[in-house]
Amino acid sequence: MTGTDRAGGGGPGGQGGAGEPGGRPLLLGVRHHGPGSARAVRAALEATRPGVVLIEGPPEADALIPLAADEDMRPPVALLAHAVDEPGRSAFWPLAEFSPEWVAVRWALEHDVPARFIDLPAAHTLAWRAADGHGDVDADARGDDQAPPGRPGTAPADVRRDPLAALAAAAGHDDPERWWEDVIEHRGRGAGDALAPFTALEEAMTALRETEEDGEAEGGEDREGGDGDVRDLVREAHMRLQVRSARREFAEGVAVVCGAWHVPALRRRATVAADRALLKGLPRTKVDMTWVPWTHRRLSRAGGYGAGIESPGWYGHLFAAVDRPVERWLTKVAGLLRAEDRIVSPAHVIEATRLAETLAVIRGRPLPGLTEATDAVRAVMCDGSDVPLALVHDRLVVGDVLGEVPAGAPAVPLQRDLTRAQRRLRLRPEAPVRELELDLRKETDAGRSRLLHRLRLLGVGWGEAVASRSTGTFREAWRLRWEPELSVRVAEAGVWGTTVLSAATARAQADAVTARGLAEVTALAERCLLAELPDALAPVMRILADRAALDTDVGHLAQALPALVRSLRYGDVRGTDTGALAEVAEGLAERVFVGLPAACAALDADAAEEMRRHVDAVHTAVGLLGDAPAPGRGDLHSRWRAVLHTLSARDTVPGVVRGRAVRLLLDDGELAPDEAARLMGLVLSPATPPADAAAWIEGFVGGGSGGGMLLLHDERLLALVDAWLTGVPADAFTHVLPLLRRTFSAYEPGVRRGLGELVRRGPEARGSVTTAGSGVPGFAAGLDPVRADAVLPVVRLLLGRHPAPDDGDLAGANT
Q1: pLDDT of residue 150
Q2: How far is residue 229's CA from residue 208's CA, in Å, rounded to a whole number?
Q3: Confidence of residue 133 (pLDDT cuts 50, 70, 90)
Q4: What is the percent of the chain where pLDDT is above 90?
Q5: Do residues 324 and 332 make contact, with C-beta atoms less than 8 angstroms apart?
Q6: Residue 500, Cβ neighbours under 10 Å: how many?
Q7: Environment class of residue 416 by beta-carbon count within 10 Å: exposed (0-12), middle (13-18) or buried (19+)?
Q8: Please, are residues 89 and 82 in contact by the beta-carbon 8 Å criterion?
Q9: What is the pLDDT of residue 508?
Q10: Is the pLDDT of residue 66 over 90?
Q11: Cα–Cα distance measured from residue 436 to residue 443, given in angstroms and rounded to the nearest whole number
């Protein structure tokens, strides 16, 4: 073929015979991920029997095509390309069972016909993106459904975004796929008309491209040379060269399956020299390619890695249904609603079918579509409510179908190790959200916990830790959901190692070196224990000790201590040696004890509230440290109590911190109730500024510390607060009101109602602050044994003790 050879010939009319030697290529323009297009492609290939099938897609994936015939390959799947030196720079080419490209690949494999991808190589695509300053290719990498940069609202840009949508809109249809079904699929489907839809579509696309070119000419410099337009020209030039090459090689004929937008360009006369000139000097990078599982939910997203399909579940149903698609669909909907305990009978299905067919007739459509089916479901099965209809849309119209790829598909070593671990631990990746409760005393559950924590260290967010129903340290709860882009994260993490263990260890060591603060290092130490990374824990602990020795900020030390103490408990659960952690934790605690009183002086309101949170965290951490037997650790409690006494008595300490210190001492039994009442009385005296008194109350009974119940059951304290509040001057009341509202609004409704009832009774009914509420209904000076014994049956039921035990047994059970 000489340099003046042409890509095609003639006008956009007849396709020519695919089996004619030297004949024009059979150009099958499609709408990506359209079931109508997929069926039309299969019919055209069956009718013409070409010698080779060329498909829009990255040529690097040609070696992966045979895997599509593997029995373990189940769409939706995607071709994944990523740069070898930067795995995070990647692109996906999603394919569903109803994608025309997938149908073309499968037809070629079933008929022993060569199949090739002819789009611009991924090596150029990824390098081009990098040159533009982009990372991941953030959409379906074909680009046929994406608009180029241009002026918003211009007709050509809208045409370019989805050419079939432009044709549908011109015909008065709002759904491009429904237009394709109505106009092409449901009209004139005779055996001899297999190529007629593509001939008509090529004519329409030719007219649309001429419209866009006219629009570009009118737009002037605003649109000339747009990045998306240039890329289309380059891609189409590469495809034309590949078509020429295939025509020379295969005399039986060439079939090309590509986006309908590109058909006129592939038919256009262009010289080989001109096409090669467009490809000259393109940036290039080394890439790896593989198949990865995809999901219907990802297909439904227009942004990110999605393909912009609104109803993949419906499309899959249309493609798979051999007959009566509407009736079968409504039967699926009825089954889903019945599973959710809604009353749906066969009569509902029959009536909904009739309504859908009637709506189609009224709307001038040859068959009911998703719009008619949805309207019928809403009216007949959902009683006009959109609430159950949202469930139908989520579960069926979109769906959580997750594809599968065979074990023989190329993958980075880290991915292979992860796959082996998933199989060993029976932790299958799934598209729907899955709640997982783990008992760490069981080896399988402990292994699952290690794997999920290691993946989180590597940035592979398959699992999210959530609050467990159990408060014990032997339990963990996770929320799992496998997203397709996690395959990219796994490939990206492959730079750290070939196994999950080695990669997580290397990543933890590197993160410890680059950590910016002490709290980050302590959190990393905690994650290393959770993930059971002993080789990473030692260097992390060395860095932690060095950082702790140099950091003099009490706030930083207080932030770091809780994570260390939690790590000690995790180590106990997992049988890990935590001696080094204990030493660092004790050292941090000692430095906090020494520096905290001085650090609490001269703080503004925001800093005081933050310090109050630090005091809470340290108090909890010291309590946990005391639970773990170790030499010298028992004195921590007494030293911490001394710090709290110091904080409670210093006037230079903010009120919110002083109030919290008193409350913590009271809760631990280190402060008598009378003494707590005395301190509150002093703070709420007229000599104390109202704002400082309100802050003290916030520290004492606020912050989610159960202060409402304390006031509810200790009426001396409630009387003090009530008497102080009623005596606040009017000019100061507006300043303390916001703080008090924040304090008391955090209480549960029942507690607020109880406090309101006590206040409504008034001081006389409640009694004086010295009588502890004597004479008030429900309170007495001493214990009432009869009323106390009344709870025993309920306690026995909660403890599972059906025979009535004696008092000693019950006391032992409570202990």
Answers
A1: 28
A2: 15
A3: low
A4: 30
A5: no
A6: 25
A7: middle
A8: yes
A9: 92
A10: yes
A11: 15
